[in-house]
Amino acid sequence: MQTQRLSMSEDDTEMALDCLNRLLKERQVLRDKRANLQTGKSLSQRTRAQRNRVSLELIVLEGALSDACTAYAKASCRKLSSQLLRLPRELRDPIYAHLWKKPQGERTELSDLVEILSPRDMQGWKSDCSGPPCSCTDHLPHYADVNFMGRQVVFEVLESCNQYENESRDSCYVRATELEQFMYADAFHVGVTRTDLFRGMGLTIEFGNLVYGDEESYASEKRMVEEKLHAVVNLLMEFQDQYDRNIIFDIEHEHDTPVNLSQMLEIIRPAFLHLRDAGANMWLDYANPSSKIEWDFDESTFGWDVEEWEDERIDLGMRELRLLDHPDDRLDYYGLPEHTTEEEFFAVQGELQTRRELAWTAIMQDLYSVHETDSSDADPST
Ligand SMILES: [Zn+2]
What we know:
extended, 5 strands, alpha/beta, binds zinc ion, five-stranded mixed sheet, 13 helices
């Protein structure tokens, strides 16, 4: 039975290759034909019509070629799978391991897989898919695509990946609003979630799209935004044993006045602290290009008392000023026109400084629970 299936799969590969070669030859014939029709300087109407017809045939052929390539790739992957599955598991595992192990400094498939799985780049699979054959795993590399390698090999490949994921310094990026789907969807169609796969890998959770720049639009969507934030917090509160995992809360937005920044920080604070207690290295990356802000708060921030927050804020202001010693630099930096007077310049700088201080204070008070009037709760974990 097994041999019969195998020889069928070999037949499939041969047939798919024949088809591919035939189409490649056809394409060459059409290309030559078109080139011959293009040589004359002034083409007759008839020749022009002929040439257009050939161009059209070529376009159709390209589509057929692409399908033939996929069919050949599927057939040869199936053949490879059946060959692999004839080996005992203890020989298959070292073969899978070649995907993840490379000499120092070289990129492994693991990095590529992490990148491909970050929803920032794609979200091809459909949550209502009933399984292969389907197109929702098209974005995956063939070795992890059930439509190419079959269920068992993909499952084993992912199991093997799981053993090496801790060696990776890569980080998955995910929008907060897509976190649940990202973590628990059956993205490979073999019953392995991304959470199963990347338990210890760095995670960057992006909240920037939930920051609003004007009161009116925030007021109309406030309830929806808060529901989304609470759902993310509830999800994160279930995370246990995050020992040494790097988790970044990333808030980047373009609004001059982030009207709900404080509310957002207050809502997400319990999750931020819970993850830290669960052993994760918690970072906050806060960026607002329109206010010239790019701040990374690392683990050490948890230890700052109110004086240290104040010192860091002053340092921050000084660093910015030193950067802007030259008058032309500061004109560029603030995007001001050439004829800007000193007075106008200081007004702009003053406004930016106010915005920066507001954001700084919101982060200090609403995320890290450090309040100017009371330094006794400087460490929010106590
Ligand atoms: Zn599918």
